[in-house]
Design brief:
Keywords: Coiled coil. InterPro entries: Chromosome_partition/occlusion, ParB/Sulfiredoxin_sf, ParB_N. The longest helix is centred in the last third of the chain and has 34 residues, at about 235-265. It is built from 14 helices and five strands. It has a five-stranded mixed beta sheet. It has four domains: about 1-100, Conserved hypothetical protein from pyrococcus furiosus pfu- 392566-001, ParB domain (Alpha-Beta Complex), CATH 3.90.1530.10; about 100-160; about 160-235, no CATH class; about 245-304. A hairpin with a 2-residue loop joins strand 3 and strand 4. Helix 3 (about 85-95) packs antiparallel against helix 4 and helix 8 packs across helix 10. With about 300 residues, the chain is α/β, with parallel strands linked by helices.
Length: about 300
Amino acid sequence: MEAYLAWVAIDLVIPNPMNPRRDHSIESEQMQEILRSKGWAEAITCYRKGQYYIILSGHRRWHAAKKMNEKEVPVYIVQAPENNAEELDRLGSIQGGQVDWTPYEWAKYTYDIWKNSGKASYSQLANKLGISQSLVGSRIRVYKFYPRIEIEDKLSNGMYSLSMLDYILKWIKRVEKHHFELYQSMGEELIRKQMLKKYENRCFNSKIAIDNIFVTSACSKDILEFLTDINKKLQDCQFELELLKVDNEVDVTQNKLNVKMIIDEIRLIECRTKNEAGNLKEELNKLLKEIELKENQLFDMVEN
């Protein structure tokens, strides 16, 4: 089919349901002013579906025209896409360079492209979209993990960043791996919401991406305390863990010294009479029982 230009009734023009942008009213007043002062410098790109025209490019111009009560709009009619994958392709290629999609809308678009391509590899998709493989992965993971209502507006106004949302997601998955009972008892939704609140309170930075110290070494009680206190900083938790580690090392060293001193004292024991020997033997038997008791306690700690 050869593309052509036509003026059509605006009621027959329909926004594309696959378009990532949900709100077409963004900067609508400015767009209306442009249409009034400069007219239609560029038609709306559509394809026909029965009597209707499905938009591929020009959603904001269409919305502005609706607000201006226009009866007809210029439509550049092109060949209809053969499938969903091609339609997404064309939506991105036609609009991507012209429309300032939000980070969330780009994430949705990337996810839809990936899904409709049969879940192509991230490297293939990166080549297709002209972006890095890591950005493809972040967009897909963030779109799948977070509800739109939780992140879209805050991504748009810069309160959240896509990379930090991806880091938080990966950290939560580490909690699931290393503290599964806690993860199950709290539930993913609550953990996610708590971490987003802590993100807003600046309780951690991008180093959370490589946090393998606290999340893997701390006990579940410490993880729970960090998650439930929305003002507790990850850096403080890591510092407390390091102090505890130092204290434990000091305790171990002191215990080793104590044992050595006991051994040395036993070696220095002397007796001059049978009566002294009997008394010492009785004391040593008591010591052996204490050693056996302590050995059993240590064995239980190691087993558990």
